[in-house]
Amino acid sequence: MPRTLRPVWLAALAAGVLLAMLGALGVLAPRAAAQSTLGQLASAAGGRYFGTAVSNSALTSDTTYTSILGSQFSAVTPENAMKWDTVEPNQGQFDFSGGDQLVSYAKQHNQLVRGHNLVWHSQLPGWVSGLPLNQVQAAMENHITQEVSHYKGSIYAWDVVNEPFNDDGSYRSDVFYQAMGTGYIADALRTAHAADPSAKLYLNDYNIEGTGAKADAMYNLVSSLKAQGVPIDGVGFETHLAIQYGFPTGMQQNLQRFAALGVDVAITELDVRMTLPETSAQDTTQADYYSQVTNACLAVSRCVGITVWEFTDKYSWVPGTFSGQGAADLYDSNYQTKPAYTAVANDLTAAAGGTTAPPTTAPPTTAPPTTAPPTTAPPTTPPGGSGCKASYAVSSDWGSGFTANVTVANTGSADTKSWKVSWSWPGNQAVVNMWNAVYSQSGTAVTATSQSYNADIPPGGSTSFGLQATYSGGNTAPTLTCTAG
Ligand code: G3I
């Protein structure tokens, strides 16, 4: 940090602080939110995904639903279609049609698929719980092997074991626990890993978002699995919240301590219910809860994404389970966004450094850094040159595809008017989607050029864009060339 700052840099800094404050107050963000989808914003905010649970009946019958689903979300989770009672209702008789339908939709829309779930006490067909205990392990291993093999290469992450704990932190005494003790969890993870070594393997549970006995139990389990070398990649925090019960204590710190064990963490089933009728005061509290969850995830680098458990109240599971409660989702039953949607979009925009916000959103009085004349450049800024530098980081890789973030920094002494990043893939990587840049790929050569809203980078500033690509074999990072106009 230089000991003295020239007045003009102080002005630029003040302008930056003012822009950040306006962003935090939501003055800038709503326009960005209107322009970018939740999936794009989450990607720009550290290469994360933003997903939703999907009802297969809505997928096949409701075009408003599918249009929002395809545009807003970068990941999907089948709400019911991959569960045991659907997939293997009778022993050895498999039905993958519902899951296949969603996987196909997700491929067409460049979405990740979270597989949910393989081993769970609920939605378990009667034949499994009725088995003699000495046959349960073979049935479980066969179910996992068949299902994971069927979807091999299509699933980003599996919830391998779902909800293994009671609320007091003791193990749920379901048929798997009765047959194999706690060892069923390691066995399930190893079996899933053998069937698809590239899929991320998760344990998933509710009421582990804040600190407490159940979160401690999960923490101890993950710690012990890691120590034994059992393949576990992540922990899913369902996050079914209710405004009348308060916000979980210490959520960010809790996520962080799990991440410190060397696993990814993800918000897997977020919704925030309320007592009906819905009121605007309750909507405001709900938006605050959504915002707190989003920011807890954004603050933890290994929090890879957020999934909401349905995005519209029209298909929410809540009213059917909690009588007199509902209105838990980002959109109402008529597909109108609620304050919770705006809150999440604003948080993601702020975390993305406002890169999705067009510079024109700054009110004239804020003197954006772009107004600084070239003479304001610090002496250390190299004159001339290409004027920009691009750096590349893979944010997620599931063996057959990946997402990456590219940061474009202005190293010159004047604002950029445009920028272009080009590279040649070392392997057979193929871009399927790019956000916050316009791209073309010919053979292995890719160019990504600025959009109108992020072309202007002030000296010393940066912006970023994201991409999703497929590959087979190696996924070596390319060498990037950046040119600024
Ligand atoms: O498919 C049958 C249909 O044939 C029948 O006519 C109808 C009559 O009730 O039931 C239909 O099955 C329902 C199924 O959803 C599919 O719609 C079940 O009754 C119903 O119980 C089931 O509820 C699901 C619930 O899990 C079951 O535990 C919810 O949709 C689903 O959102 C919910 O999801 C769980 C996660 O998997 C795990 N974490 C908690 C979360 C919320 O409970």
CATH superfamily of the largest domain: Glycosidases
Oligomer: single chain
Overall structural class, as computed from helix and strand content, comes to alpha/beta
Which consecutive residue ranges, at least 5 long each, have pLDDT under 50? Answer: 1-34, 356-385
Tell me the number of structural domains.
2
Helical region count? 16
Here the CATH topology of the largest domain equals TIM Barrel
User: What is the percent of helical residues?
Assistant: 25-40%
Q: What is the total tally of β strands?
A: 18
Q: What is the top-level CATH class of the largest domain?
A: Alpha Beta
Radius of gyration: 24 Å
* Annotated CATH architecture of the largest domain: Alpha-Beta Barrel
Largest sheet strand order: 1-2-3-4-5-6-8-9
Mean pLDDT: 86
Report, as a whole number of angstroms, the end-to-end distance.
Answer: 29 Å
Shape category: globular
Small ligands present: ligand G3I
- Strand fraction equals 15-25%
Largest beta-sheet details? 8 strands, parallel, barrel
Provide key terms for this protein:
single chain; 485 residues; alpha/beta; TIM Barrel; Immunoglobulin-like; 2 domains; eight-stranded parallel beta barrel; four-stranded antiparallel sheet; 33% helix; 23% strand; globular; disordered N terminus; binds ligand G3I
